[in-house]
Design brief:
The complex is a heterodimer of chains A (624) and B (361). Chain A has 22 helices and 23 strands. Chain A is of the alpha+beta class. In chain A, the strands form seven sheets. In chain A, strands 2, 3, 4, 5, 10, 18 and 19 form a seven-stranded mixed sheet that branches. Chain A has a five-stranded antiparallel sheet with strand order 12-11-23-22-21, sandwiched between helices. A three-stranded antiparallel sheet of chain A has the order 1-8-9. In chain A, strand 8 and strand 9 form a beta hairpin. In chain A, helix 13 packs across helix 15, helix 13 packs across helix 16 and helix 15 packs antiparallel against helix 18. Chain A is elongated, with a radius of gyration of 35 Å. Chain B is mainly alpha-helical and 361 residues long. In chain B, helix 1 packs antiparallel against helix 13, helix 5 runs parallel beside helix 8 and helix 8 crosses helix 14. Chain B is globular. Classes of the chains: A alpha+beta (624), B mainly alpha (361). The interface between A and B is large, with 42 and 53 residues.
Chain lengths: 624, 361
Amino acid sequence: MPVPNPNLIQKRIGVLKTVAWFMILWLALAYAWVQLWKGREMERLALAQAVKTRTTPAPRGIIFDRNGNKLVDNRRALYLVIQYEDLPKDPAQIEALAQALQTDPDQLRRRVVAIRQAAGNRMLVLQDNLDDSALARAEVLRARFPFLSIEVAPRRVYLGEDLAGHALGYVGEVTPQEMAQAPGRYQLGEIIGRTGFESSRNDQLKGVDGQRRILVDYLGREVATYGQQEAQPGRSVYLTLDSGLQTVMKDAFGATSGAGVVLDLRDGGILALYSNPSYDPNIFLNRLTQEQVKDYWDNPDRPMLNRVTQGRYPPGSTFKLLVAIAALEKGIITPATTFTCRGHQEFYGRDFRCDAAHGTLNLVEAIAKSCDIYFYELGARLDVDDIYNAAKKYGLVEDTGVDLPHEVMSRVPSREWKRRVKKEKWYAGETISVAIGQGANAITPISLARFYAMIATKGKLLNPHLLYGVRPDNGGDIDLYQPPPPRDTGLDPKIWATLDEGLYQVVHSGTARSSAIPGLDICGKTGTSQVVAFVDKAHYASLAKRFRDNALFCGYAPRDNPQIAFCVVAANAGFGADSAAPIVRQLCQYWFIDRIKKPIPPPSAKLPDAFRLDNQPGDEDQPQ
Amino acid sequence: MRERLRFLDTRLLLPMLILLVMGTLTVYSAGRGTAQSTLWLKQTLWNVLGFLLLIAVAAANTPRIFRTALPLYILGLASLAAVLAAGHRIGGAQRWLVLGHLTWQPSELMKWVTLLFVAHRLGSRPIQEVSARDLAEAAALVLFPMLLVLKQPDLGMAISFLPILVLIPLLKGLKAKWAALGLVAFSLLGVVSWRILLKPYQKQRILTFLEPGADLQGKGYQINQSRIAIGSGGMFGQGFTSGSQTQLNFLPVKTTDFVFSVWAEERGFLGVLLALGLFGAVIARILDTARVAKTSSESYFCVGAAGIIALHLFVNVGMVVGLLPNKGIVLPFFSAGGSSTLSYFLGLGAVMAVGYRAKMK
């Protein structure tokens, strides 16, 4: 067997050994560089990808009616989001994501940039309220775009659906415009009330978002919680609404469009407020489909309009009470003054008609029978500014102060108004129409209701409001809302007595006899008027004239000790006594009689929502 | 007992056993809370089985060992062919034979068999200097299985055949000019490989190595996460089972290719120095054995064994820290896997047999 060449082999093995040790030294140097020199930086990178800060959205306050029946609740919902630190930087990625989500890439890019610049650790919500199939699609997307995540967050549920849509409003993400209008007030991506009570009392309802520092694994799944600042839920709020009365109102309107409001005469609390067509606020929590946009926003029936506070109607004969006050205060007539109605009469060279030849009547009879001729006579003797000044004095042309956004102010014409708006002088003949509530008169149902509440309270102008009270954070007794004290108009008691008698006779023996309830003295005034200023004129011009008449009924009950005041407008529904008064009759029937015997149960959630906020889904199925 | 096991070389066995314990603990830490949580137990079983094989081989006579080289080489080629024909495919590569519940990677053992056979062949001839016949034979014997492995494809494994081809002729007395010629030829082969032989993913890995920041979510992602893991180990480490990169799964393939990153993260630079020192001790001891070997074949085998271990060490440990391109190659004594574990035990058993024979005479 050959023997190795000792010298060569020994030498070369020695070299190899040296080479091996040098290689190991090189490795050691490389590790020293990464672990000792760059160690801090690497540790920071490791922490940055493993420890994340998450915002815990605070649930908004729950909304109850005055009896503690839940109207608005929160549910646990799933959202497809991009967490702040995962926001994509690559424009191509945003483009691809927008394509996958079928949204506008420019808009998505703007939202991504806005959230990154806000640096508030907010997430970008791409889709909300994922149901089973949307969740499956979201998971598929997540495989393609690993920066997406699915988060659980509270979501509003409006239990009554369209029961009180306009009163409650709905919530949505704050818009860039709103943020620009009130700098520093909102955080980007914040959920705020968009309209209705949700908007006007947003500050009470919204909570304080919490923050969590969590440890995530390589897929962004939460592994452990480092520390957290709990979200503070918004405070529970009680409304003055009575859900039973609200239900009666909704059912009474049926398919008739219009508006109705019932005020509590003790403090001006709104017991019921309904605008028909109504809407289900739940719909507006999601991105609307094109069809829904058409149905709600581009609908000539204007379902998004809150007719109670934003719809201005010619008040018709309900306005006659104000004209009576103006005439009595000016001393043109006394309650005993009579005029004779022959069915028609000429004023300023034009023939004006009445419903019937009422004969000779005094003021109470004129109110009860709603005689136009009597009030034309007053119109002929009054200046338009007399009427306007009375309207001003008795609160008809001011903001009612109701806690709903975007209230529209009522209008009673005056010389100054015509000069300013129409650039014309006032003609005395126009006052004739104004005296029976036509002409340029345009009054919102809420201010009419407040005016009749003023009569009911012998001259007090109440502040209509929806806020009943707020439950303090510690869960103690409800902090009751104290509305501002009512303003005393100084209505002469003698004048009041005449008006009260007239309004009583309307239901007792006058135009609304058929709506009387035995044992309950309702005081009210019917009204019928034409022309609707806020709906699409082209749409209505094609309809027969009688469909364009609005029926009104305003008043209070019971006569001896008034509890409630009301105003109901049934649009395009003909004569006031035929359509609006029966609605009021049903309201009074429920409020004074049925409510005590068999109250209507509160709305319950019919929504197929598997996620409850306080429990994990399926908890109740677990055996104990 | 001690007398009966005196063929076991403690100066080789001790660092090796320490490395094995370190490796198995690292596999335990890396597997925690994942589907591989019991992998360390399996690895311990492989280690015990390997140790028994080591005892058997170390006790054997070296001529007897070399006599098995030819049949084993033929069997090895056959099994590599079987892998290509009917192998088990994982992630686009066909590297495994399935035997019941076990998957076996023939290329691991084939490396050692090729080394044994080449050492045997070249050592059987007189040494003056390396003849053309020697070179041709070595090249043929190494390149044939190497190409079969490359076809699987398994670039990392194919590269670990190279020490055999380089070191044995060098030891036999290859002149410097021939070595230079070989280098040129190898570079040429490299160019050809890049153009024709390499798969797109292999090219991608090399490109990623050249520009690590470019593709953080793809191939470069693994190296990047590995560097973060190693770096956050600092001087003393995050502590056993406490490395965030490991435990939160940011670190990829952490029980095999990137197992050393786990060690570096949890044990720090001091742990790295300890491991490198022990590897150095193993390699040095094998080279010392080569020096005292009684025959050329024995000497060549030992140098080749040191070369294979050094190459794996350098490529794997260098790769996870970003010194070298990301290619799948295991770290001896650390990475989990039955085929490679048993192969190293067998190879080192043969080294011990060489050492014992030298001591005896």
